[in-house]
Amino acid sequence: MVLLMKDEYIDQMTPIELHSYFQSLESPTFGHNFRDNYEAVWATYRIWITVNVVLFILAFLSIVASFFMPKQNVVVMGWSGSEWQ
Protein backbone atom coordinates (compact mmCIF):
# COMPACT_ATOMS: atom_id res chain seq x y z
CA MET A 1 0.00 0.00 0.00
CA VAL A 2 1.23 3.48 -0.82
CA LEU A 3 1.71 5.58 2.31
CA LEU A 4 1.93 8.91 0.53
CA MET A 5 -1.17 9.90 -1.45
CA LYS A 6 -2.55 13.02 -2.98
CA ASP A 7 -5.68 14.57 -1.49
CA GLU A 8 -7.86 13.80 -4.50
CA TYR A 9 -7.18 10.07 -4.12
CA ILE A 10 -8.14 10.19 -0.45
CA ASP A 11 -11.35 12.06 -1.33
CA GLN A 12 -12.40 9.24 -3.68
CA MET A 13 -11.78 6.37 -1.23
CA THR A 14 -14.55 4.41 0.40
CA PRO A 15 -14.78 4.40 4.20
CA ILE A 16 -13.33 0.88 4.36
CA GLU A 17 -10.34 1.92 2.21
CA LEU A 18 -9.80 5.02 4.35
CA HIS A 19 -9.88 2.94 7.49
CA SER A 20 -7.28 0.49 6.18
CA TYR A 21 -5.18 3.36 4.84
CA PHE A 22 -5.03 5.11 8.21
CA GLN A 23 -4.48 1.80 9.98
CA SER A 24 -1.38 1.27 7.82
CA LEU A 25 -0.16 4.75 8.74
CA GLU A 26 -0.51 4.00 12.44
CA SER A 27 1.46 0.78 12.37
CA PRO A 28 3.47 0.35 9.20
CA THR A 29 4.58 -3.16 8.48
CA PHE A 30 8.23 -3.57 7.70
CA GLY A 31 9.91 -6.57 6.20
CA HIS A 32 10.41 -9.69 8.28
CA ASN A 33 14.14 -8.92 8.55
CA PHE A 34 13.81 -5.21 9.38
CA ARG A 35 15.34 -5.66 12.84
CA ASP A 36 18.33 -7.56 11.44
CA ASN A 37 18.93 -4.90 8.79
CA TYR A 38 18.63 -2.17 11.40
CA GLU A 39 21.12 -3.91 13.69
CA ALA A 40 23.61 -4.31 10.83
CA VAL A 41 23.34 -0.66 9.80
CA TRP A 42 23.63 0.50 13.41
CA ALA A 43 26.73 -1.67 13.99
CA THR A 44 28.38 -0.31 10.84
CA TYR A 45 27.57 3.24 11.90
CA ARG A 46 29.10 2.72 15.34
CA ILE A 47 32.26 1.24 13.81
CA TRP A 48 32.66 4.19 11.42
CA ILE A 49 32.12 6.71 14.22
CA THR A 50 34.69 4.96 16.42
CA VAL A 51 37.27 4.81 13.62
CA ASN A 52 36.76 8.49 12.77
CA VAL A 53 37.07 9.56 16.41
CA VAL A 54 40.29 7.57 16.82
CA LEU A 55 41.75 9.06 13.63
CA PHE A 56 40.78 12.57 14.72
CA ILE A 57 42.44 12.07 18.12
CA LEU A 58 45.62 10.73 16.49
CA ALA A 59 45.76 13.66 14.07
CA PHE A 60 45.20 16.13 16.90
CA LEU A 61 47.89 14.54 19.07
CA SER A 62 50.41 14.55 16.22
CA ILE A 63 49.79 18.26 15.61
CA VAL A 64 50.16 19.05 19.31
CA ALA A 65 53.30 16.90 19.55
CA SER A 66 54.89 18.73 16.63
CA PHE A 67 54.89 21.95 18.67
CA PHE A 68 57.01 20.29 21.38
CA MET A 69 59.59 18.76 19.04
CA PRO A 70 63.04 20.39 19.22
CA LYS A 71 63.83 22.56 16.22
CA GLN A 72 67.04 21.85 14.32
CA ASN A 73 69.01 24.12 12.07
CA VAL A 74 69.22 22.78 8.55
CA VAL A 75 72.10 23.67 6.27
CA VAL A 76 71.37 23.61 2.54
CA MET A 77 74.24 23.64 0.07
CA GLY A 78 73.69 25.55 -3.13
CA TRP A 79 75.24 24.89 -6.55
CA SER A 80 78.01 27.38 -5.92
CA GLY A 81 78.93 25.84 -2.57
CA SER A 82 77.28 28.57 -0.51
CA GLU A 83 75.34 27.59 2.54
CA TRP A 84 71.78 28.62 3.38
CA GLN A 85 70.12 28.36 6.74
Structure description:
The chain has 85 residues and is mainly alpha-helical. It has 2 domains: 1-30, no CATH class; 33-85. It has 3 helices and 2 strands, in the order αααββ. The chain has helices at 7-11, 15-26, 34-67; strands at residues 76-77, 83-84. Strands 1-2 form a two-stranded antiparallel ribbon. It is rod-shaped, with a radius of gyration of 32 Å. The N and C termini lie far apart (76 Å). The mean pLDDT is 80.
Number of helices: 3
Q: Which stretches of 5+ consecutive residues score pLDDT under 50? A: none
Strand and helix order: HHHEE
Question: Total strand count, please?
Answer: 2
Identify the strand order in the major beta sheet. 1-2
Structural class: mainly alpha
Give the overall silhouette: rod-shaped
- Largest sheet descriptor: 2 strands, antiparallel
From the N-terminal CA to the C-terminal CA, the straight-line distance is: 76 Å
The pLDDT mean sits at 80
Q: Please state roughly what percent of the residues sit in beta strands, choosing from under 5%, 5-15%, 15-25%, 25-35%, 35-45% or over 45%.
A: under 5%
Overall helicity: 55-70%
How many structural domains are formed by the residues?
Answer: 2
Task: Please state the CA-atom Rg, rounded to the nearest Å.
Answer: 32 Å
